[in-house]
Specification:
two-stranded antiparallel sheet; disordered N terminus; single chain; alpha+beta; 183 residues; Dna Ligase, domain 1
């Protein structure tokens, strides 16, 4: 992604069956870094969990999902591949991945959580614009956040190690609607 790149993802309201989106999530792994799958397998072993075909399926879905999936969305996609997979397997797997820092649990202005793989060490971090009207989520990186990090370091001597940022407002489509102008 370029510094000012933005990437729309699946809206979270209304939800679509399977969470289809025009673009799959791109791998953001620097050369030589272990893959998400390898890091996840290691985390499962450390947690004393067996490596099963069901967990392999879940990792593929989490790693390559379009948009920002919630546990139910991951479960629906996984059940299309393996009808025997249980919702509790999804939650247990997400819990281990979260504890080991492999997935982020996002609270994108909704009642439930969404999950996405953590950006690999050394790769560029991204952030989220969340439309308060339609729920569209657009990922962005660089630019203003980099300037903020530099400004905090220069003005306060604060070395920023990470930024969690979700910006809520109206997407261009919703902002262009006449009722949006009255708000």
């Amino acid at each position: 992604m370029t510094p000012a790149a933005t990437r729309p993802t699946t809206p979270t309201k209304p939800r679509t069956a399977g969470g289809a989106s025009p673009r799959p999530r791109k791998a953001k792994r620097p050369a030589g870094a272990p893959s998400f799958r390898d890091r996840a397998k290691n985390a499962m072993r450390q947690a004393g969990m067996r490596w099963t075909q069901q967990r392999e399926t879940l990792l593929e879905i989490i790693e390559h999902a379009t948009g920002h999936q919630d546990a139910d969305g991951i479960y629906r996609l996984a059940r299309e591949r393996d009808p025997r997979l249980s919702l509790s397997t999804v939650y247990r797997t997400l819990g281990v991945l979260k504890r080991h820092g492999l997935v982020d649990e996002l609270h994108l202005s909704e009642e439930h959580h969404h999950y996405e793989p953590v950006t690999a060490p050394g790769a560029e971090q991204h952030y989220h614009f969340v439309c308060a009207s339609c729920g569209e989520i657009t990922e962005f990186s660089g630019g203003a956040v980099h300037r903020l990090r530099d400004e905090l370091r220069k003005e306060h001597g604060f070395v920023v190690q990470g930024v969690d940022l979700d910006v809520t407002g109206l997407c261009p489509r919703c902002a262009a609607k006449p009722q949006a102008l009255a708000s």
